[in-house]
Amino acid sequence: MSRFFRGGDDSSSESSSDEEDLYSGSEAEENEKIEQEEESSDAAEEEVEAAEESDSDADQKKKGLSRFLVDQDSSESEESDGEITAKVKSAKDKRFDELEATITGIQNGQKINDWGSISNEFDKLNRQVTKLQDGGKAPKIYIKCIAELEDFMNETLAKQKVTPKKMNATNARGLNAVKQRIKKNNKDYQEQIDAFRKDSDDFMESDEEEVPAPKATKVRFQDMIAADDAEEDDEGFATVGKGGRALLFTPESIFKHLRTIVESRGKKNTDRLEQIKIMEKLGEVAVTPYQKIRVLMTLISARFDLGSGGAASMPLEHWKAAERELFLLLRTLETEKDHIIIEGADEWDDDDKPPVLEQGQKYIRIPGSIVSFIERLDDELTRSLQSIDPHTSEYIERLTDEGSLYNIIFKGLLYYEMLRKDASLEVPQESLNRIIQRRLDHVYFKPAQVVKILEENCWKEVPSNVDSTITPRTESVDAGHLINVLCNYLFANSDGIIRARAMLCQIYFLALHDQYYRARDMMLTSHLQESIAQFDITSQILYNRTLVQVGLCAFRKGLVYDAQNTLQEICGSGRQKELLAQGVMIQRFNQVSPEQERLEKQRQLPFHMHINLELLECVYLTCSMLLEIPLLAQTGSSPDVKKRVISKTYRRMLEYHERQIFTGPPENTRDHVMQASKALAAGEWKKATLFVHSIKIWDLMPNTEDIKTMLAKQIQEEGLRTYLFTYAPFYDTLSIESLSTMFQLDSRKVSAVVSKMISHEELAAALDQVTETVIFRKGVELSRLQSLALTLSDKASALIETNERTLEQRTQGSANAFNRKDGRGGNRGGGQRGGRGGARTGGNTQRQAGGTQFTGGALGAAVRG
């Protein structure tokens, strides 16, 4: 390295030695190369000398190897030169370099038979070549690559057939992917591939002038243009696809565009709105009915993809467009009788020519499902209503679309009825059942007047020569008859969930229109309460709604006991919102996953289908009050009578209300019922009636005055029963006339109530019809001490039985060894037990004051039910 230090001083020996250590190894070789280059090129030396002369001060300071070090100024200049070089290189050259690198990667994958990397590089290659296509012609190196790749693939497949050799999963997937894509891809460049295979050398050497392709216009640019100027800006422009090629929409190219769109559905980075625009233009150029039907079906499916997310609903404008297109599709199928859409038909694969009717053929069958379109349109409307605030005008406006949707459901039903007339088509019965169920779902919860309007509007859109076999055309529409016909058809032609839902819909409609006894009989004979737990959640929700509606119907009929017994299952649980799908309950201690919460929200019913929960609670508490207050009076006057509870929810509220030190005037529905309960228990039936009538929620029920009149009579009767239970021990005889005056009831009604109580053994008395008096029988009246002794005896007997059962379980039945046939060690306690858990017949039976045995009567039946 001495030649690098020819101009150095001896005094700098230490620095030179350090520099020798620094520039050892590879850097020394690099410096030798630099010196050789300087010696070989005189021009470079002259430039260096000129630079050294121009900056003499710097040269005087830099000696030895230091003159080869790069200072800050020179490094900045070099960086600027590098930037200039990078900017000078054109983008097209860079893309060619990337394309060649990708082709090299494919060739390397072919050498080692790595189809996984070949598949990835092939996808990358196709993305790169779209940027380099010039006037529809691809680069020649690309044509050579895909032609050789196709040949290599064919050779590999041929070897696999001759000598099957198991490939690993990655290679097999890559080979299948290339096999599926390369044939479709090479079809677009078939002419160039044929020219290459005919004479590869001539093809590669031929020089064709390449004109740079125009830059492809991206869709994002259109977002910057105002909507008002969109039509003006479209003039003079054409739709641009990949690679900057203009898309030509002709009747002959419709099927190719449709196939491309169908294959790209569901893939990432797919512009769905752009696809919809393309299909709208295809619909404009469609000529034949087959083309129109295919475009409409694909367009409707693409619009549904916009609402495929879990939480987002379909945009309003696209829903209305899909509704119009589905209506147009059904109208086209009505006019073109030889074109039918049916499930299970064979797909037509030839994109160059449409199918034609051959000799012996009656229909051109197109694969698809009209009922699936209708169901999806219905579901999207429901999701849209779920996401809108129901207390705004937007919800009312959105709800008006239900009329047009019902019209489409009706037209779809007529279409399937037409298909079912031809036995050769083999239309599945399930499709017809599904669309009838959708029609039923839109009418079962509506009043008869609304159903009548919907049906009349549907028949106006139908030609006069078209009629329905299931629901024929009539002059006046009867909603009850319509529901009955639809449900009977599903009873006869379906089973499982659809049949159960049809039954529930009919029961709901009957209960809504005050036909309680028919609804009750259908509910009992269907036995759905035994098997409803095995159905899906939506059917269980419908069952709960039907049960509640039957209970409300019983209340409107004045059947308090039946109403309370029916509503007990729903209202007694405290989960009315969740069971009726009218809201998500906030669970305090349970952690709900986001997936469960999302499913719960999807199951919620739209607001217009809700049952008023405040009205439901008011009815339930009122019925519980009319049953519980007489029962409390009965058990209070007879300490030995076992306490029973009809409604735990009502009892809990009543106890909480009684614990309050100060109770102000009632503010809500619950307060009104509790105040009325206290007044009724005290015998103030007029005050109780006033409290109940002052509840404003009764105005939401039809025939409000009839409801209030019925409640007043019920309060009078239950007040009479409560009075008799409370004060019977203090009377020997009581005049019916006095009771009639006290409670403002007819004498016959008082006699009927007393007779009913006596017959049910709720009251130890006799009715003298001659003198119209009630004679109370005292009998053997138990004292307080005797009643407590009987209670203690019963508890001791129950404790003995519990101990015996526990002993029997621990000794595994050995305790029964004493019960032998010889009679030794017989039953204990004087009672006879018929095995474990059997009824105890020995001991003292429970008695009521007056000496009569209490059997329960109507209240006992309520508990046993």
TrEMBL record:
Keyword flag Disulfide bond: no
Keyword Coiled coil found: yes
Coiled coil: 172-199
UniProt keyword list: Coiled coil, Cytoplasm, Initiation factor, Protein biosynthesis
Residue ranges of domain PCI in the record: 607-781
GO biological process, alphabetically ordered: formation of cytoplasmic translation initiation complex
Compartments it resides in: Cytoplasm
Main location per the UniProt record: cytoplasm
Gene3D superfamilies linked to this entry: Winged helix-like DNA-binding domain superfamily/Winged helix DNA-binding domain
Record-linked SUPFAM superfamilies: Winged helix' DNA-binding domain
HAMAP family with a match to the protein in the record: eIF3c
Family statement: Belongs to the eIF-3 subunit C family.
Protein's recorded name: Eukaryotic translation initiation factor 3 subunit C
Species name: Lasiosphaeria miniovina
Biological classification of the source: Eukaryota, Fungi, Dikarya, Ascomycota, Pezizomycotina
